[in-house]
Each structure stands twice: as structure tokens, then as C-alpha cells.
């Protein structure tokens, strides 16, 4: 974002071999050793501020397509976990973080994407994995090339928010836990229900015994996976 404030026109990719102060959602530390992919895309005025929350879904769909392409994995092994994670065999492989800022009357956005290519953290609230551990050795360079191409194509499909319905369908086609009972951990308390849909704004819809609840933010835990409440607190 500092580059945007300094006047950079955007459409700028920045990659790193490692990060010392990587951050994930809610300011959590993002473990960033050498060997993984760390990439950020700066955009100026990519859309109206009102549809900026859609960018996370655009990036997630592009990420899924990119990883599917370079790994050749069959459908089902890679899945998207609401709102911003990519899973491999139900363990976290990659994540997306979108940050935006108004510079005068112009929206600047940074889309950060991290892929566990060679390493993954052990002490996490949700199971994690990496491509190497899964027997899928893919270098960072081909990963980035596939990702940048996929994101350009997916942005074109999205059309600045005019075609979010298509992106929403793409996301749901790749969703992990859809139709299953899931838990959403939130500061104000956990919610548990069947993940039935995304609403037009991208909120997760839970069916809690016949009552639909829209979730705007939270950490999703799929059924049948152990999580560590102490770490996630």
C-alpha cells in the first residue's frame, strides 16, 4: 500500500522469497519461510468500493484454477474454504488476504496470496499442508506464472463486479463443506449449522435447524477435522 501512496499506478506484482513480518487475517502472524510462494498484487481503481469485498472470491477462484492447472489434481482434492483459504485434502495449502484503502476518492487494493509450496506450519488452529509434503513438487516460478495468468483471466470474467454471479457460482462449485455441518468460530461465539450457500454479497449462509443465518466474518471448521481451540483463541 505504501507504493500506492507514493503514486504507483498499480497492476504491480511484488514477490518475496521469505517474509519476516507476514500477516494473515485479523493480524495473525503468517509463517513465511523460504521455499513458498508469497505474492502481492497492487491495483488502483479495480472496482467501485461497494463491490471491493468481492475481490477475495475472485482471487480465491483464480488461485484454485492456478493450482489445479500446475498440479493436475483431480476435482475434489482441492477445495475453497470460506472466506479465503485453499485446501488440499482438507488441509490448508494457500490463503488470500485483501486489503484496501481510499486514497482521496480512489480505491487502492493489495491482494496478497501465499502458497505452501515446500513448507507448512505445524502449530495452527486448522490442519495445514504443502505441495512437497503431498508429493507434488512444484517450483515457485511455475506457480507464480500460473497464478498471474489465472488472476488476469478471472478478473476479466468478473468485469469489475458486474458478473459477480458467475464468480459466486465458480466459487460454490469449488467450495469445501458445502452441504455439510460446519462450525464458524467468531469472537461473539461459535455458530454451527449446514453450509447451504453464499448470498449475493458473499456472506456464508448456515441452516441452523431450518433457520438461515448469514455470516459476515469468522473462521470455518469443517466436520471431522480436529482443531486446536487454544491456538485459535
Describe the protein in words:
The chain is α+β, with helices and mostly antiparallel strands and 233 residues long. It has 2 domains: 2-173, BirA Bifunctional Protein, domain 2; 181-232, SH3 type barrels. 23% of the residues lie in helices and 30% in strands. It has 5 helices and 11 strands. The protein has helices spanning 2-5, 55-71, 140-158, 164-173, 229-232, and strands at residues 12-16, 37-44, 78-81, 85-88, 91-103, 106-115, 181-185, 191-198, 204-208, 211-215, 219-222. A 6-stranded antiparallel sheet has the order 1-2-6-5-4-3. It has a 5-stranded antiparallel sheet with strand order 10-9-8-7-11, with no helix packed on it. A hairpin with a 5-residue loop joins strand 8 and strand 9. Helix 2 packs across helix 3 (140-158) and helix 2 (55-71) packs across helix 4 (164-173). It starts with a helix and ends with a helix. Mean pLDDT is 90; it is low at 227-233.
Amino acid at each position: 500500500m505504501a507504493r500506492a501512496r507514493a503514486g504507483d499506478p498499480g497492476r504491480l506484482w511484488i514477490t518475496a522469497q521469505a517474509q519476516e513480518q507476514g500477516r494473515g487475517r485479523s493480524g495473525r502472524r503468517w509463517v513465511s519461510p523460504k521455499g513458498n510462494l508469497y505474492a502481492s498484487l497492487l491495483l488502483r481503481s479495480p472496482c467501485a468500493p461497494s463491490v471491493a469485498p468481492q475481490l477475495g472470491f475472485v482471487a480465491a477462484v483464480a488461485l484454485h484454477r492456478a493450482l489445479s492447472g500446475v498440479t493436475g489434481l483431480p476435482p475434489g482434492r482441492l477445495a475453497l474454504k470460506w472466506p479465503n483459504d485453499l485446501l488440499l485434502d482438507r488441509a490448508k495449502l494457500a490463503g488470500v488476504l485483501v486489503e484496501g484503502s481510499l486514497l482521496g476518492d480512489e480505491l487502492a487494493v493489495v491482494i496478497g496470496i501465499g502458497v505452501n509450496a515446500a513448507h507448512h506450519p505445524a502449530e495452527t488452529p486448522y490442519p495445514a499442508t504443502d505441495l512437497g509434503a503431498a508429493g507434488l513438487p512444484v517450483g515457485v516460478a511455475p506457480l507464480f506464472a500460473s497464478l498471474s495468468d489465472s488472476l488476469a483471466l478471472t478478473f476479466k470474467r468478473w468485469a469489475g463486479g458486474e458478473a459477480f454471479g458467475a464468480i459466486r457460482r465458480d466459487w460454490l462449485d469449488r467450495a469445501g463443506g458445502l452441504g455439510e455441518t460446519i462450525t464458524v468460530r467468531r469472537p461473539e461465539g461459535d455458530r454451527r449449522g449446514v453450509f447451504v450457500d453464499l448470498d449475493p454479497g458473499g456472506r456464508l449462509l448456515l441452516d441452523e435447524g431450518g433457520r438461515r443465518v448469514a455470516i459476515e466474518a469468522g473462521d470455518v471448521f469443517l466436520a471431522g477435522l480436529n482443531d486446536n481451540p487454544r491456538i485459535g483463541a
